Amino acid sequence: LQITGLIFGGVGMVGTLAATAMPQWRVSAYVDGNIVVFETIWEGLWMDCISQLGLRLQCKFYDSVLALPPPLEAFRALMCLAMGLAIAAFLMAIAGVKYTRHSTQGTPAISSFILAAGVAFLLTGTLVLIPVSWTGGSIVRDFYDPQVPAPLKRELGAALFVGWGSSALLLAAGTMYCHLWCR
């Protein structure tokens, strides 16, 4: 169970790093009269990208942090905090696996690092889930809003799916480690 939790936590940590860096949080949608199909627009936490026919990719970092909408600033902060906490939780899990003593009689002496890693993984999974789900909800809401013009409608990007998957793995790893401590 410790090794499975370590693998889930490691993959969840890598997924959190990838979701934070990926520019595909919001992807342009082709609906109604929007017939510009040779251009795909990606919007991420750090940059916007335009892909033309899948051959040419142009990305531009946001010019000013002060010009960003407040939700995007909050999502950046949450994802950066989640990245740092995921790395710390993974290192605590490694230490917990290493310092757990197995005896021939009775139950093993579980290291307190296991509990700390479990709580940190649970917190990290929650921190990743908030901005990813909030962004997904706003994309769906805007997609079905008749007030939003068709060229401004977006679809769910790959980074959201990576974020949801990594959040699930982090929550599973945290649950495993907390269960080990409580046994």
UniProtKB/TrEMBL annotation:
Under which name does UniProt file this protein? Claudin
Gene Ontology CC terms: bicellular tight junction; plasma membrane
User: What membrane topology term does the record carry?
Assistant: Multi-pass membrane protein
Of which family is this protein a member?
A: Belongs to the claudin family.
Where do the TM regions start and end?
A: 74-97, 109-136, 156-180
- Which PANTHER family does its entry note? CLAUDIN
- What InterPro entries does the record point to? Claudin, Claudin_CS, PMP22/EMP/MP20/Claudin
Transmembrane as a keyword? yes
Q: Which GO terms describe its molecular function?
A: structural molecule activity
Q: What is the lineage of its organism?
A: Eukaryota, Metazoa, Chordata, Craniata, Vertebrata
Tell where it localizes: Cell junction, Tight junction; Cell membrane
Could you tell me what this protein does?
Claudins function as major constituents of the tight junction complexes that regulate the permeability of epithelia.
UniProt keywords (A-Z) are: Cell junction, Cell membrane, Membrane, Tight junction, Transmembrane, Transmembrane helix
Organism annotation: Certhia brachydactyla (short-toed tree-creeper)
Q: Which PROSITE patterns match?
A: CLAUDIN
Q: Which Pfam family, giving just one, matches this sequence? A: PMP22_Claudin
* Coiled coil (residue ranges): none
Task: Give the domain of life.
Answer: Eukaryota
